[in-house]
User: Fold dTDP-glucose 4,6-dehydratase from Labedella endophytica.
Amino acid sequence: MSKLLVTGGAGFIGSNFVHHVIANTDSHVTVLDSLTYAGNLASLDGLPEDRFTFVKGDITDAALLDELFPSVDAVVHYAAESHNDNSLDDPRPFLDTNIIGTFTLLEAARKHGTRFHHISTDEVYGDLELDDPAKFTENTPYNPSSPYSSTKAGSDLLVRAWVRSFGVQATISNCSNNYGPYQHVEKFIPRQITNVLRGERPKLYGAGENVRDWIHADDHSSAVLTILQKGTIGETYLIGADGEKNNKEVVELILSALGQPSDAYDHVVDRPGHDLRYAIDSTRLRTELGWEPRYVDFEAGLAATIEWYRDNEAWWAPVKDATEARYAAQGQ
Ligand code: NAD
Ligand code: TDX
Assistant:
C-alpha cells in the first residue's frame, strides 16, 4: 500500500488517519476533500511535503476521480456528512455525499480496479436497550434510525453490491463513537469541553442516559490500517474498544477534569429519534486480524483530548460561535 487516496482527510477521523499513516508507514497519502464546514486544512498541518498531497474536490466528481485513481494503490473512504443533528435539520446533503458520493467512488474503483476501504458506523444497526447484554456484531441486521445513519447504511449496501456484482476489491468497517483531537465542536465531547473552557455550561440532551461506546480516533486508525493490510475482500469488520459510557458520566468527567462541580451542566431538548445505546463486539477484528486498541483507559484518553482543546483554541474558536448559534436556534 505505498500510495493511498484518503477521502475526507481534512475531517476529524480522516485527518487522524493521515497523521497515523505518515507516522507509522512509508506510504504516500493524497487527501481528496471538498472542505465543507467540517473540513479544516489546519488539521493536516505539519505533514512532510514529499509524502502528502492535498486535492480540493468533491467525491461526486467522476472526472476528478478518473484523474486520481490510476496513480494510487488503495482508496480509504472517510468523506461524509457525519452529524446526526444536521441530518434532522436538512437531510439532502447526506444523500448527495453519503449515497451518490460513495456510488461515484465505487464506479471509479470498478473502472480502475482499485482496492477500496469503506469507513462506516455502528449506527447502521440502530440501537440497543440500556439493560440488554447484547452488542452489535457483523451479523446484526441493519436498522438505522436517522437520515444520517440511513444514508450510511445505504452506502454500506452499495459497497456490498459492488463487491458481489462487479468484483470490486472492497472491505467495510463499522466503528463506534470516536473522540480525540481535530473533532468539530458540533460533536458531543468537543462541544462540552469547549463550553467549559469558555465558561459555558455543558448541554445534555434529555436525561443523559444514552450510552455511546467510545474509542480514541488513533485506535480507529490502527484498526483501518490493519484491515487494509490483512482484511479479507468482501468482509465487514466492527471496530470498538469496549468504551461504553452514558452521556451524563462523560459530562461529569469533563467537568471534574476542568475543576468544575460535576453537576454544573444543563439538560436541553432531546434529539428526535435519539438512539439509546450503541455497543460493539470487535471479536472478529481482534481474533482474525490481531488488532488491539492502545487507549484502553477512557479517562486518560479524555484528559489528553481536553489538553488538546485547551492548547489549540485557535483551531476551534473560529467556528464555535456559529455552532452554538445553530444549537440555540433548536433549543439545544
Ligand atoms: P467529519 O464531518 O469530521 O469530516 C468529514 C470530511 O469529509 C470533511 O473534511 C468534509 O470536508 C469532507 N467531505 C464532506 N463531503 C464531501 C464531499 N462531497 N466530497 C469530498 N469531501 C467531502 O466526519 P468524521 O467524524 O471524521 O467521520 C468520518 C467518517 O467516519 C464518516 O464516514 C463517518 O460516517 C465515519 N464514522 C464517524 C464516527 C464518529 O464518531 N465521528 C464513528 C464511526 C464512523
Ligand atoms: O450537545 C450535545 N449533547 C448531547 O447530549 C450533543 C452534540 C450530543 N449529545 C448526545 C447525543 C448522543 O447521545 O451525545 C451523544 C453523542 O452525540 P454526537 O457527538 O452527536 O454523536 P452520535 O450522534 O452518537 O454520532 C457519532 O458517532 C457515530 C458521530 O457523529 C457519527 O458520525 C458516527 O457515525
In short: The first strand starts at residue 3 and ends at 7. The first helix runs from residue 12 to 24.
